[in-house]
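Hi U.,

Before I forget, here's the chain from the pilot set. I'm dumping it here mostly so it's searchable later in email.
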Amino acid sequence: MFAVFSASSVRRRGAARRLTVAAVVSGLIATGSMAGAGAAAVDDDGGQHQGGAVATLDGLKTFDRAVLHTNGRNHEIPAGVFEMTVDGGGRLKTYCIDIHNPTQEQAKYLETPWNQTSLGTNKNAGRIRWILQHSYPQIDDLAALAKEAGTGPLSERTAAAGTQVAIWRYSDAADVDALDPQAEKLADWLEKAARDVAEPKASFSLEPNAVSGPAGGRLGPVTVRTDADRVTVNPPADAAASGIKVTDAAGKPVTSAVNGAQLYFDVPAGAIDGSATLTAQATTSVPVGRAFAGATKSQTQILAGSSETTVSADATATWAKAGAIPALSAKKNCVKGGVDITATNKGDAPFTFELMGFKHSIPARASRTVTIPVGEDQAYDFTITGPDGFEKTFKGVLDCKTTGTSGPETDTPSSQPSPASAGGTSAGLEGDLAETGSSSATPMIAGIAIALVVIGGGAVFFLRRKKSTATEE
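Structure:
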């Protein structure tokens, strides 16, 4: 197993260091823009992926039937294993942990920490991982599984259904039974036998994923976390022109590394103010129990099995000659219901901002995190732009709750497949949809706009609320 670490997208700023952030958050669509800003590439993962696998949902592949009891009615639904294709190579098998929400066809999924999904507030999350470790497909000797669980003969389909039913009882507190008698016995045994197991570590990450500092030194460290045996480190593609290097703490250029290695951006003293993004890739298996959240609104999944898979992570360095030198990163905060924007200031002047009427100041060589409120199931898109095409984007959907815990139960479970879309319906960003194969009404859109203007050595965040409505379709 090996990994490739490369640096790319070196962006430069002129002497006039004016940086702007524009952001809009809504339940249907979110865009960020700044007049006059140059074009720049936007990461497919929205700049918020903490690292690991990125995959595309192929659909529900191995399943049988179950009965969901909700609102005094019974609904027959499929229950089983989904499959995903990993960007760069590899296959994943997953179960649903979000029974009332739909999937989107060919939805993009990101490996995600539990605390950024509904598992973060679920006291039974560890029991779900135990079920995954002790049932199909991790246990592929179905005769042995049937004997231990006392179920009678199991097929792949009924084993998958029984496992999914047991998971739903813990992930969604769902009143659900497997239709097949042996599958139901398996679900009951798994539910009763489950014990709390710790969350698995990420398959791959770079920590932190944003660093900053003055030109003429080494910026970092960025620590490699991976199960891969070896990491290959490549210098920036334009190293000869920019002079930016990837080194160890002593300044020695790095060509290979292992788990725990600390990497630095070596920036020449004469470098023009700017930034560079490094992308790391590795080949490893993803640990069972890792959560996978949709890059758009799509049913949250949990990993049941992984082949040798390509995993990746990004890290960005920002440098300047003087003044405030912020490094910006973001992640979902399901406890507070928003997105945490972390600003680290490695400059020699304070970095100050005003957010929702409150003023904050980050002293030189300090760090602080601000939570931007985002409604459940709402899309957000924060775009940081500046001169010469500088751009940093954070985007995604805040999906921290299952429908069963955040609102009224739906009449029809969204996991029911149609011929065109096994495992759910293409729902766009319209929130929790009650019916398969159709869209529900679009909710009221609540937006938040943020502007960040850096003037001299300081900065100010201005936040204003916008209100708009969307007509029901």
